[in-house]
Fold these 4 entries.
Entry 1:
Amino acid sequence: MFIKNIKMEIVILKNADKATKYATFLIIKQIGKKKNSTLGLASGRTMVPLYKFLTEYYGMGRVDFSKIKTFNLDEYYGSAFFDKKSLRRFMQENFFNGVNLAENSINFLDGGDKKWRVVCKNYESEIRKAGGIDLQILGIGRNGHIGFNEPGSLENSKTRKVKLTGETRGVNGVKYKEALTMGISTILKARKILLLAAGKEKAEIMKKVIEGKIGKEVPASFLRNHKDVVFIMDREAAGRLKRFK
Ligand code: GLP
């Protein structure tokens, strides 16, 4: 089912596999349109099959990452480069190892650097220097976080250090209490945004994101203020939407 208005597009597909493939095709389409695109990347379980599909399409010669630049959303603060639970390592194992991205085109927040203010400021300017993000890929936390912008994050927030909620630490299975994350305003500057949500544990929050009040209680709701955003869900994640019932 496709519902389109000026502000957002909602795509609901039968299952997680189909939703993930749809997201994969949008990414491939973006790269087809602009070979040197800058992509904003996310981590999380939802992204694992997406990166698997992208790696498979690369293997079939259907997509080329040699001119692509990437900026990941976030990293645990206090995690040295490549720590077992670091998001940098997650990306290496789930995506970077399998495609032809140039090493120096991969950008990541360094969670091991104590000078986090400088790290965050430089990240914003690196994104700017790259000409901005063409396509930002997002997952969503059960409490509505995007990147690590937990509830309470403001629409004008920039890349910064944040505290993780107990829920997020529990769901992600990490000891880290803080993280560095692109801010909401950083994310909203992307030219196009794609959010992928699958599974019934995302149903409650997707209802709030799409049908609830826009505000800091549900950071992902700010995406509705973006002019080119697509929410891609499987039937389970969309299961509580009024229009879908
Ligand atoms: C993490 C990441 C988010 C991601 C979220 C959802 O907290 N920082 O960027 O969207 O988890 O994760 P999952 O896909 O595992 O539900």
Note: The pocket of GLP is lined by residues 42-46, 73-74, 139-141, 147-148, 168, 172 (CB under 6 Å).
Entry 2:
Amino acid sequence: MPHAEHVFLDGRVTLQVGDLTDQAVDAVVNAANSSLLGGGGVDGAIHRRGGPAILEACREIRRTAWPDGLPTGQAVITTGGRLPARHVIHTVGPIYGRHGGREAELLGACYRNALALAEANGLRSIAFPAISTGIYGYPADQAAHVVSLALSRHLSGGTSAVDEVRLVFFDRRQLASFVAHHAFPA
Ligand code: ADP
């Protein structure tokens, strides 16, 4: 169980250290790249553990909905394959410094659009990695501020059926940085 100090928004958001691919939730969110055809970091781990069904579903999305790739900030949903999670919601985080000052807006859009897709599919629990803070270079302290504000606004609207949002950090240092810089209401 996460320590009480790592629970926010009346228990709907929890922070924990762990591996995203271990999470038994309705959907885990993939920090994908726009090709949707696999990459390093979380993306590689999800495809390795989830097996070929996820990649096949991503190829189908490229063939149909997004032939030129998924734009930054958008989200799509596939099977979870062999993951403990039933679904994967793939979103493309901003590459820090490459969006002319729109990075925060785009990072917030990743979380909002992933939640909206979960809601549209009747899902209740979702686990996020720290999108863009790895290979894409988004400073973790700034990401904490942006992500906590986006989640607070979205979940306090009262219309979301998602009642469990897990923020999963790969190590204790990343979690501590988030805790130090978040903007969740007390
Ligand atoms: P991006 O390209 O969006 O930066 P990365 O996958 O490189 O995505 O990293 C995003 C974050 O996820 C980083 O903080 C990284 O440490 C973390 N991470 C990498 N693998 C895992 C995993 N299996 N579970 C949880 N977090 C992970």
Note: The two ends are 20 Å apart (CA to CA).
Entry 3:
Amino acid sequence: MAGSRGQFSSRIGFILAAAGSAVGLGNIWGFPTQAASNGGAAFLFVYLILAFTLAYPALMAELIIGRHAHANAATALRQISPSSLWGKIGSGVGVAGMVVASLILSFYAIVAGWMIGFFVAALLKLLGLNDVAIWLESFSTARNLGLMTLFMGLTAGIITQGVHGGIEKWSERLMPMLLACLVGLAVYVLTLPGASEGLKIYLLPDFNKAIEPDLILKALGAAFFSLSLGVGTMLIYGSYISDEEHLPSLGGWVTVTDVSIAVLAGFLVLPSMYVALHNGIEIFDASGNLLSEDTLIFTVLPALFDTIGSAGVVLAGFFFFLMSIAALTSSISMLEVPVAYFVERDAGSRPSVTWVTTAIITLISATIILNFETLFGLVITLTTRYGQPLLGFMFCIYAGWLWNRDTLLTELKKNNPGAADGLFWRIWPTYVKVVCPLIILGIFYQSI
Ligand code: TRP
């Protein structure tokens, strides 16, 4: 298997790569800014509940199916189907996941490009090239197009190298640095005037807000986005795990790491907003709404770095470098979805499939940039708030209802002969069968 399809070479390699996929812009750009504009602590509270009760079981469904089938989502769902009709529907779900993954990458690359822009701008400021730096930091179609294309090129470059040489090596090196940098910055920001205001908003929930259907739907989308669910990313990563691994704990590690980093980023971003406000930077409009959710952190974080003086430029450079890397370890997991699908269908060699797919996604992304006002928010909402949870629902149906129970148990027993008596087997199968689908449908029903 390792010869033809590639495999993660170690347990820690997989955890870091899967955590690398999970940890990205969703944690540091998506979650904190959504929390800030949706009641702070109430959003945090609902997000935490949904991450552990819904997203973790859905993640396990993808990992287990993936490792069993050792194939992409379309093939895997077809394989575990009880009939040819379900097989066809399964392939359809896999293909839909691939389309959603590609669309997610097309907006993700735009935001990731901004991260690269702020990183390079910090370097240029150190060299005294302020004009170019300001251009890189200011919103313009030309800048967005250039940086997005650069980011897509980097993503494709890593994906052509395959699982072991590309994905695993990069994640292992850079993930720990990101964590250290976040902790350091969060501790620093808490010492600044204004920070405690943000901290209060982040930590004291207003439970009335926590039961609003709209907030719950947004938190569901955020949790699914953050764990890279519903589009077959985690299924593909699962297909590269060796049979010796204990899947439930691997999935648990990935979930805990991902959620912790999102929560930690909240401790950086929400206090930073109020520090920025304290320093005279506008972040709310007259009616008290955040000025712009999408670009918020590109306003408040640079303002935070400014409080540090000249060392702030160095720190800004370092921070945006790590963010660019975090975005890359996520974007490669998105691009891997269509690439694995076409390679496994023998549509061409890995490098040629990678470059063709990349070109198509780059064109979609350019279309979004050229129609930014109308398309950017729309694509994000359609893919993350609706696409991912609904496809995640289908994965739960396949794992819970359609897949033969004995085969599933055999899969879990591969590395753990006592799996049948374990806690996971007692709870999870019924849970993905009944509880997860019902909650997902319930949340959608409520919000309509
Ligand atoms: N989870 C990543 C983040 O938080 C984004 C991501 C990677 C993703 N792969 C995905 C989102 C697949 C949806 C689907 O930034």
Note: The chain has a mean pLDDT of 90.
Entry 4:
Amino acid sequence: RWFAGGQTNLCHNAVDRHLATRGDQNALIFVSTETNIEKAYSFKELHAEVQRMAAILKDLGVKKGDRVLIYMPMIAEACFAMLACVRIGAIHSVVFGGFASHALASRIEDATPTLIISADAGMRGGKVVPYKHLLDEAIRLSSHKPANVLMVNRGLADLHPVEGRDQDYATLRQANMDTVVPCEWVDSTHPSYILYTSGTTGKPKGVQRDTAGYAVALAASMKHIYMGNPGETYFSTSDIGWVVGHSYIIYGPLIGGMATIMYEGLPIRPDAGIWWQLVEKYKVSVMFSAPTAARVLKKQDPSYLTKYDLSSLKALFLAGEPLDVPTATWIGGALNKPIIDNYWQTETGWPIMAICNGVEQAPTKFGSPGKAVYGFDVQLIDETTGEEITEANKKGVIAVNGPLPPGCLQTVWGDDKRYVSTYWSSIHNKVMYSTFDWGVKDEDGYFFILGRTDDVINVAGHRLGTREIEESISSHSNVAEVAVVGVADQLKGQVAVAFAVLKDPSVASTEADAQKLEAVIMKVVDDQLGAVARPARIRFVTVLPKTRSGKLLRRAIQAVCEGRDAGDLTTMEDPAALQQIKDSVTH
Ligand code: ATP
Ligand code: MG
């Protein structure tokens, strides 16, 4: 518990607190290259919209402590909805708009919301993605039924309103134009929201966040890590369905008195210059994206990155997955800006590892997300002995000695037992928070993330991180992306198997050519890491299975390779990708 006994409100800190000093400054800049709508809201306008939304929630019977599920595309109303919830002390549970009925139903069941807020449709790559039938089906599948559904009608798809349950946002907003809804003061420890992890390693966990600790952590990170100042513009390319969207599209920038860009669209549409065009137009000073997006841009014409005036931009922050050195070097060079990796989890709400240039200037080392952020007592633990590893460059489990600093999860929603048994299960009698990631620390205190603890490959007694082998393979000039998994082997215990996406697939279009390239890449690994790390097979595919948040689903690939059931796949992006793996394995 942080700041126990205090009272506060997240919406007050994000919006109302700025009205006197920066009421007319931009707060929310909504840009959709899908619908060609661009609209900026000042803090005053945002304040008015949030109060209208809050009034609607209250009219629909939402009370302090009630859950409100938000299943929406990246539109301004989603931001109003999140802020309106915390304004009245309701707990939001944002579900990524790209999820289908099944994933949505389990989250409805888990959060038991009084109200669901949704929209008729999202858009992706110029195509309408209708939401309503998925939502109706999810409610049908769930044993819990919300009393009301509030629908934002964008005029993109059919609404099929359900009599007595579905409410029209535009109509209710019109009736509340001048409503005043004061902030409801809540205890510091009052839950602000529930958010599910990406489901990369198993069934997603419902992270429960507090109020005051979170606000303090975000305000601090804005100064000390991201170096964003009030009055500047922050642009995070994530989605509100993920933790980066919660912390650094909505709450962090607004608490810091910054304008925030909410972008609906692809990074390469209308062309690969769109993000940089926005940087120029809105004088973005801090940008936050994911390595997976950087890799998408890497496949495009690099001249788009230099076409616009980027002088306002101080740095590009990347997080969510290991940032490989070739990608970091490439984008850093193309933009001529510092690239800053930072490592964290849905659970922590803000970075565990980063370079805190706002505290003390430190150089970046590519391949490393930096040092432990103040507040996190990070230790590397030897899995076999449970002892802390103090020696440099020795691999161990990344753990945090409690208590966790402000901003981190309070518990797993509705399941304290799962919280304790999942995260605080002792590593050889040492009760610590486990990140379930594996890493090393160098002489200077910089960490390197080697992969998930589940992904450690044990080849004839040698323990290897998937990351090391992937990094080595991706140093070959024709490899765009690669996933390495450990596969059970009678002789060696486990062997590494790689699945690579090529920049130019024609090089491996025949069986003989593929074998030739496989041998060349194996030689690369031999030379860099030694024969022990050499994958038993390198197979070429056109796409890799990922979660909707862009993370490699190694556990599913591994299961397929070992002929096992692939487990919970509700958060998977493209089922065809896993099918390709299946085909290539049985081939
Ligand atoms: P689940 O917990 O449901 O299996 P998940 O761990 O992928 O899913 P997230 O909270 O979205 O869910 O992701 C956090 C994980 O992402 C970290 O534990 C780590 O494995 C990885 N990660 C995040 N940032 C970095 C980074 N900068 N470098 C390397 N890995 C990172
Ligand atoms: Mg996780």
Note: The mean pLDDT is 95.
